[in-house]
From TrEMBL:
Protein source organism: Asanoa hainanensis
Name by which UniProt lists this protein: Uncharacterized protein
Superkingdom of the organism of origin: Bacteria
InterPro entries, per the entry: SCO2524-like
Length: 614
C-alpha cells in the first residue's frame, strides 16, 4: 500500500494532543468543532485509545515497552511512565462529566442535535439519550478496561492501584448502562405486505420482478430461523407477537434512542435511573450499523481473553449478541436476496421502507452484508461483488472522480445525510435531526475490512488500491492550519464548490478515519496471502535447487577450495530457509531458491571454463 498507517496514526496522535492538551493548565480540553458532548468527547479520547488498545505496536499500558516514536508523538502528556497516569486523569474527568450526581451515566446527543424548525432544541431534547452515545460508550469503556487490566499488572505503587480501581469502576458502570440502553433501543417493525412499508421493501429486494406473494414467501423461507429466534428476545425492547403471519414482513435493528414504551431492565449493576423512551419503534440503518459494530466488541477475542466483563455484564452481552445475530441475518438476507444476477445491494441507491434513497444507505447495507457473508463463510467472489459496489460508490460520491459544478453528490460530504429523529418532537417544539457526513471515512474503513477478508491476491490488491485512492482523498481533506492541523475535516480542500471552512477538528470524522487506519494496520500485520500457483512454482524451483546442490556435494565440490566451500555453505543456508518458509511465504522461498540456482550455475560455468582451457 502507498499509505503508511503507522506514520499516519502517529501524526494523528501528535495532532490530537496538540489540539486537546493545554500545556499551561496541564488540562485536557474537551470539544472541537462541536461543543463538548458525551459522544464527541468519547470520539476524541478514542483517537488515542483505539490504536493504543487495538494495534500491538502502539501499546501504552506497558511503559517499559512503549516505542520511542510513540513517546515523541504524545510528549506533552509526559514520558513513558507519565503518559498512562495522565490518561487516567483525563478519563476520570470524562466519566465524571457524563454522570449525574447520583452516579447515573448520561448518554445525551446534546450539541450533535439540530432541529427541523426555527426553534432551537429544548433542554429536555438536548438531554435525550441516543444510540450513538450508547455504542461509543461500549467501545470506549472496553478500551479503558482493557488498558487498565494490563496497566494494573505493572503498577507497583498502592496510590496508582487505587486510581486504576476507581477508573475501572466508572468504566464498568458506564459499560453496563450503555448495554442496558442498547437493549432498550432494539426494535422490530412488523407490517402488512400491502402497507406502504411492505410495498417499499418488496420493491427494493425484488430484482427478478416476481409476483409480490412469491417474494414474500421466499423472504420468510430464507428468514425462518431468524423468525423463530425472536421468541428468545425476552428482556428490553423488541418483543413481537404478530410476526408469524404469512401476510406480514418486518425490519429489525436499532432505533435512534430508547424506544417508546421500552420496559426497564432488571439488573444488579449500578446503572442508575433508566429514562423513558421517546424514539420511534422502528429501526434506523445508521444507528443499526453503529450498534452492531459496538456490540461486536463485547464478544471479541480481546474482551474474552482479558476477561473484561463481569457475570452480569456477560448476561447482558448474551442478550445483545442474540440481537446482533438476528440483525445480521436479516440485513444480510435482504442485501443479497434472490437468484437474480444483481443483488438488491447492487441496485444503487438503497431505498428504505420510508421511501428515502441514498448512496449512504447502500454503504451502510454493505457493512451488514459483509458481516453475513463472513458468518456464512462467503466466497471471495461474493466479497468481491461487495467490493465492486464500494468502487461504484466511490465513483458516485466523487471520492475517486472529479465532481462537476452543482454536483448533487457533494451533499453526501457536506452537510451530509440528515436523519429525522421521529418521536423527539414529543420532548420539544420541533423534531430533532441527526447529521451523518462521514461517507468517505466510512468508505475507507469498509474497503480495508473487505480487503482483509479476501483471500484472492488479485481481489485484495483491487481493494487495497481503492483504499489507497480513498486515503488520497481523505488526506487532502485534513485541516492545514491551527492546533488541529492534520486532523479532519475540511471538505472544501477537495470540493471547491463548497464554501464553509473550519478551523477546529471534527472528532466525529477524525475517529472514523482512525478506525480505518487501525483496521489497515492490523490487516498489514497478518502474514501475506499464499498463492497456490506461486507455491507450486516455488516448490519446483526449490526441488531443482536441492537436486543440483546434492549433485555438487556428490561430485566432491565440498572438499574443493575455500571459495567453493563458502558458496555451498551459503546455498545450504538458503535452501534450509526456503524449505522452512515455503508454506507461508512462497514468493520469498522462490527467490532464495533462485539465488541458489544462480550460484550453482556459476560454479558449473566456472568448472566448464577450466575444463575447456585445460
Amino acid at each position: 500500500m502507498r499509505m503508511q498507517p503507522r506514520q499516519q496514526l502517529l501524526e494523528i496522535w501528535n495532532a490530537t494532543v496538540r489540539s486537546s492538551w493545554s500545556e499551561r493548565e496541564k488540562k485536557w480540553k474537551f470539544g472541537g468543532r462541536d461543543a463538548p458532548n458525551s459522544i464527541g468527547d468519547a470520539e476524541q479520547l478514542l483517537c488515542i485509545l483505539t490504536p493504543a488498545t487495538k494495534v500491538e505496536s502502539f501499546k501504552l499500558d506497558r511503559p517499559d515497552e512503549t516505542a520511542e516514536d510513540m513517546i515523541r508523538a504524545l510528549r506533552p502528556l509526559g514520558n513513558a511512565t507519565e503518559i498512562p497516569k495522565t490518561l487516567i486523569g483525563i478519563l476520570r474527568e470524562y466519566f465524571d462529566r457524563y454522570s449525574d450526581p447520583d452516579g447515573t451515566p448520561l448518554f445525551s446527543g446534546s450539541s450533535y442535535f439540530s432541529s427541523t424548525g426555527p426553534a432551537q432544541p429544548s433542554k429536555e431534547q438536548l438531554r435525550l439519550d441516543i444510540v450513538d452515545s450508547f455504542a461509543m460508550s461500549v467501545t470506549l469503556s472496553l478500551s479503558v478496561l482493557g488498558f487498565l487490566k494490563v496497566l494494573r499488572s505493572v503498577a507497583n505503587r498502592e496510590e496508582n492501584r487505587r486510581e486504576i480501581e476507581a477508573l475501572e469502576f466508572q468504566a464498568s458502570t458506564r459499560l453496563s448502562a450503555a448495554m442496558v440502553g442498547l437493549l432498550r433501543s432494539f426494535t422490530v417493525n412488523v407490517f402488512d405486505i400491502d402497507s406502504a412499508y411492505g410495498q417499499a421493501l418488496t420493491t427494493m429486494i425484488n430484482q427478478e420482478n416476481l409476483p409480490q406473494r412469491q417474494v414474500v414467501s421466499a423472504v420468510r423461507r430464507d428468514l425462518r430461523e431468524t423468525i423463530a429466534s425472536f421468541r428468545e428476545v425476552l428482556i428490553g425492547s423488541g418483543q413481537v407477537g404478530d410476526i408469524d403471519s404469512p401476510d406480514r414482513l418486518f425490519e429489525v435493528g436499532w432505533s435512534w434512542g430508547i424506544v417508546t414504551g421500552a420496559p426497564p431492565i432488571e439488573t444488579n449493576e449500578p446503572v442508575g435511573q433508566q429514562p423513558k423512551g421517546f424514539a420511534q419503534d422502528a429501526p434506523y440503518l445508521y444507528f443499526t450499523v453503529i450498534a452492531v459494530d459496538a456490540i461486536e466488541d463485547l464478544f471479541s477475542e480481546r474482551t474474552r481473553v482479558l476477561g473484561l466483563l463481569n457475570e452480569e455484564q456477560q448476561r447482558l452481552s448474551r442478550a445483545l449478541q442474540l440481537r446482533w445475530e438476528l440483525t445480521r441475518a436479516y440485513w444480510s438476507t435482504m442485501a443479497t436476496f434472490g437468484q437474480a444476477q444483481r443483488w438488491p445491494v447492487e441496485d444503487i441507491p438503497w431505498r428504505t421502507t420510508d421511501e428515502d434513497a441514498s448512496d449512504y444507505y447502500t454503504l451502510l447495507v454493505t457493512s451488514l452484508a459483509v458481516k453475513g457473508l463472513v458468518q456464512e463463510r462467503g466466497s471471495d467472489i461474493e466479497l468481491g461483488r461487495i467490493g465492486t459496489v464500494l468502487e461504484e460508490l466511490a465513483n458516485r460520491a466523487r471520492v475517486t472522480r472529479r465532481p462537476f459544478d452543482t454536483d448533487p453528490a457533494l451533499s453526501l460530504h457536506a452537510p451530509g445525510v440528515l436523519v429525522p429523529l421521529v418521536g423527539s418532537e414529543d420532548a420539544g417544539d420541533s423534531r430533532l435531526l441527526w447529521t451523518v457526513s462521514e461517507f468517505a471515512a466510512l468508505l475507507f474503513q469498509r474497503t480495508t475490512v473487505i480487503g482483509g477478508l479476501i483471500n484472492d491476491a488479485e481481489g485484495r490488491s483491487r481493494m487495497l488500491d481503492l483504499a489507497d485512492r480513498t486515503w488520497e482523498h481523505l488526506n487532502r481533506r485534513r485541516l492545514d492550519k491551527g492546533p488541529g492541523r492534520n486532523l479532519w475535516d475540511q471538505p472544501t480542500s477537495v470540493f471547491g464548490q463548497l464554501t464553509t471552512r473550519y478551523d477546529k477538528p471534527s472528532w466525529y470524522y477524525t475517529q472514523r478515519v482512525v478506525q480505518g487506519l487501525v483496521t489497515t494496520a492490523n490487516m498489514l500485520n497478518r502474514p501475506p496471502l499464499r498463492s497456490p500457483r506461486l507455491g507450486n512454482y516455488a516448490f519446483d524451483l526449490l526441488t531443482e535447487a536441492e537436486h543440483l546442490y546434492d549433485m555438487e556435494l556428490l561430485s566432491g565440490a565440498g572438499d574443493a577450495g575455500p571459495r567453493m566451500r563458502e558458496t555451498l555453505k551459503v546455498a545450504s543456508i538458503h535452501l534450509s530457509r526456503a524449505r522452512e518458509i515455503l508454506p507461508e511465504r512462497p514468493g520469498t522461498a522462490a527467490v532464495l531458491a533462485a539465488q541458489v540456482l544462480i550460484a550453482l550455475d556459476e560454479l558449473a560455468a566456472a568448472r566448464r571454463d577450466v575444463t575447456e582451457a585445460g
